[in-house]
Design brief:
This protein has 174 residues and is α/β, with parallel strands linked by helices. The chain has helices at 2-14, 19-32, 87-90, 129-135, 160-170; strands at residues 62-63, 81-82, 85-86, 96-100, 107-110, 113-120, 141-145, 151-155.
Length: 174
Amino acid sequence: MENIKNSSRSADFLTPRNPAHALFREAVLDLVEHYDFARPMVNSGRLSVPCTYDRSSLNGPDSLPGAPARSRPGSPCSDAPVGDGFLLDRLQGTFAVLAINAAAPSNMSIAGQAIDVITLSTDEDVNGALANRYLGDNPSAIYLIRPDQHVVARWKSLNPAEIEIALRHALGKA
């Protein structure tokens, strides 16, 4: 539904269906030349964005109070520069545990499933984006990430038993 809405809005802006849409588009394009506030109103054809699955039965717990809403369970992972690369490049299409400022083993196997473990420190946080997008008010965090780079669950500290429950839930085996 989100992608249909985005596609419809783009189509209406690029090819107005009626005089009202045409008037809006022309007004926005006139304003953009002189006023920065109008730039986000230009719909240049973004047809889709990753969906957030707030009510998905595959989501696990959100046990990280004060964490950013943008990284809640069901949301797509936000990229952030870390070290000499980017966070999303480290997620390799498998389930992963993302440990930020938290101790974690170098690899895990839970419920017979190999789990990548990505351990990062805010020392590697190039411009504060990692802390802003994943920690919020917390000094550390643990995230379980699906292969499609959506957040399954998040916690204050590593607890393999809780991760196993969330993983089983995400796999539909709970």
